[in-house]
Amino acid sequence: MRKYLIIIEKTINGYSAYVPDLPGCIASGRTKEIVEKYIYEAIQFHIEGLKEMNSPIPGNKTEAGNIFIKV
């Protein structure tokens, strides 16, 4: 089992998501719940493709955090 950071962004038409550690692995959807489902499926599909091509599966190198700034 691997753990990957996903980035979810609000768009004009809904949400988009991508995985920094899996370049090209993206998804979009009308709601946050839908885009979370789609990015999960996209990650699985992406990793299956890497396996079929005998390519290495990247590990998790990306971290996220929050910094609070008084404005």
Structure description:
The protein is built from one helix and three strands, in the order βββα. It is α+β, with helices and mostly antiparallel strands. It has a domain at 7-52: Double Stranded RNA Binding Domain (2-Layer Sandwich). β1 (7-10) and β2 (15-18) form a beta hairpin. The mean pLDDT is 96.
- Find the structural class using helix and strand composition: alpha+beta
Number of helices: 1
CATH class of the domain at 7-52 reads: Alpha Beta
How much of the polypeptide forms β-strand, as a percent range? 15-25%
Using the CA coordinates, give the radius of gyration: 14 Å
Précis, in short:
It contains 1 helix and 3 strands.
Keywords:
71 residues; alpha+beta; Double Stranded RNA Binding Domain; three-stranded antiparallel sheet; 1 helix; 30% helix
Please write out the topology:
Elements: E1 7-10, E2 15-18, E3 26-29, H1 32-52
Antiparallel strand pairs: 1-2, 2-3
